[in-house]
Amino acid sequence: MKLLSLARELSENAYPGRGIVIGKSADARAAVIAYFIMGRSTNSRNRVFVTEGDGIRTQCHDPAKMQDPSLVIYAPVRVLGHRTIVTNGDQTDTIYDGLKGGLTFEQALRSREFEPDGPNYTPRISGLVSVADGNFNYFLSILKSNNGNPDACHRFTFSYENPAAGQGHFIHTYMHDGNPLPSFQGEPKPVELSGSIDEFTGQLWESLNEENKVSLFVRYIYLSDRSFETRIMNKNQ
Length: 237
Known about the structure:
Blueprint: E1 4-5, H1 6-11, E2 19-24, E3 30-38, H2 42-45, E4 47-52, E5 55-60, E6 77-80, E7 83-87, H3 91-100, H4 105-108, E8 124-132, E9 135-146, E10 149-160, E11 167-172, E12 189-192, H5 197-207, E13 213-222, E14 228-234
Parallel strand pairs: 1-12
Antiparallel strand pairs: 2-3, 2-11, 3-13, 4-5, 6-7, 7-8, 8-9, 9-10, 11-12, 13-14
């Protein structure tokens, strides 16, 4: 399948919602992780990313504007040894606890489903990156309703071994803007990855819709020693 332009995928979609990108840098030196959030409501837009240990957390920007923190305040990124978890909700903690208890990524998510925010029933998207001995692999997952019917949860897990340099996969919550918002369909999109961490971060941030973008997290984990660099962009400064 032809690799897609990540910049084009973002710039031509005013509201992909929240998105995860995972892959290998073009120079083959690093595992690449990106996570962004967007918002249409005041509550969703009233957030920033802040560091928390080796991971990050969403935080209210203006406490006076916070309405309901239940689905907007969470830890999108946590690190457990050689594994990095990235998700669009508090299932980050579910995966973290499950892995510690001996469950697989897929097994840990069996206890969760899409978000209870009808009529959208926002999918829960999750990723797991494992870097060890100079190599890495990754998983992506989506839990979503049955085409807007909350009586059933459809569960999909995708596994990627020995990723090629300059290639990754992109999954996001919504196909595009709408009311209700249409859930992501199909497999994660194969995308081209290029540039240094600063170039890649700048490309993603500039490609996100100016009105709806909220925050962006990018991390390069270097395969040689698992050291990493992180960049965070917040519209609310």
